[in-house]
Specification:
With about 325 residues, the protein is an all-alpha fold. It is about 65% helix and about 0% strand. It has 9 helices and no strands. It has helices at about 5-15, 20-50, 60, 80-115, 145-185, 195-200, 215-240, 255-275, 290-314. It starts with a helix and ends with a helix.
């Protein structure tokens, strides 16, 4: 089907309010219904006619066969071959009529579509139907344009994404609030459970935050009132800090280490002498530099500065 044929069909469908093929199909279906009704009437008439009237049973009377024929409840002679022959004949008549109707109405369909239900192709663009009269096809200034529709579609998509993100965020906030309410609510104590380090952390509650506490305003006001005194004390200490004799960078740490080493050596010798050992017996027990340094670190950790003060006093 070409584009021009589609235009003609669309024009006729809009004018007739139905397609041209539907009209032809209705005509063919009506003719077929009439044919089937006529065939049914012929079959009923033949079956209701006595078979001898139609010529059945004549050969049985002329023959020498003396057998008694079958009869029905009313005593009428039955002719089963008559019913079979009538049904076969009606079926053949029906097939013949259907083939004749199909062949004839195919020609009728082609003729109707080509010569009756058609519009010349050159007239299709110039035809205007009745419901198009006085129709204003000019768009108003506020009519949506393709760009505005595309922009609105993008806005709708972004709004849906934002709505989905907000729903997820709301669900997370609800879950977090539920956990916080669980922590703030007092947990009932179960005497059957034992307080172990594992469940102590899991069952810890923050319900004490909701209990009544003394107000913090007086404490804050007291600390704020002490700030001027602390500033004055700091201002008085800064000049004294500048007048100190030496800083940590000017301290002679080498002389301090030497004094500490001498102190440790004297104390060690005194302990050995108090134990009954002579200097000759200490020849094999002299301490190396690493051992002395280790002892210095131990003494420094336990109060080496006090030892150095003792050395200074001696």
């Amino acid at each position: 089907m070409t584009d021009s044929t589609r235009q003609v069909d669309a024009l006729l469908t809009e004018h007739l309010r139905y397609t041209p093929l539907s009209l032809i199909d209705d005509i063919i279906n009506t003719v077929n219904a009439i044919i089937y009704g006529a065939i049914q009437a012929i079959e009923n008439g033949l079956l209701s006619t006595p078979p001898p009237t139609l010529g059945f049973g004549t050969e049985n009377t002329s023959s020498t066969n003396l057998s008694i024929p079958d009869t029905d409840g009313d005593g009428n002679i039955e002719y089963p071959e008559a019913r079979i022959e009538i049904e076969n004949g009606v079926h053949q008549l029906e097939t013949l009529l259907e083939a004749t109707v199909d062949k004839t109405f195919d020609k009728f369909e082609i003729y109707t579509l080509r010569n009756i239900l058609t519009v010349p192709e050159d007239l299709v663009p110039w035809m205007r139907l009745g419901h198009y009269e006085n129709l204003n096809l000019n768009l108003p200034p506020t009519a949506p344009t393709p760009d505005s529709i595309h922009h609105l579609r993008q806005t709708l998509q972004e709004t849906r994404k934002l709505n989905l993100a907000l729903r997820h965020e709301s669900a997370r906030n609800k879950a977090l609030l539920g956990q916080l309410h669980t922590l703030l609510s007092p947990t009932p104590t179960n005497p059957t459970t034992q307080d172990t380090p594992d469940n102590a952390t899991t069952t810890q509650s923050l319900s004490f935050l909701t209990k009544s506490h003394p107000p913090l305003t007086p404490h804050a006001q007291f600390h704020i009132s002490q700030l001027p005194a602390l500033r004055a004390l700091l201002a008085s200490l800064r000049p004294k800090l500048k007048t100190l004799p030496a800083t940590a960078e000017n301290v002679d740490w080498e002389s301090r280490r030497e004094e500490r080493r001498q102190y440790i050596e004297r104390r060690t010798r005194r302990v050995v002498q108090d134990g009954g050992l002579e200097e000759e017996e200490m020849v094999g027990t002299k301490m190396t530099g690493e051992e002395v340094a280790s002892l210095e670190r131990v003494v420094g950790a336990l109060g080496g500065r006090e030892g150095s003060d003792v050395v200074m006093e001696e």
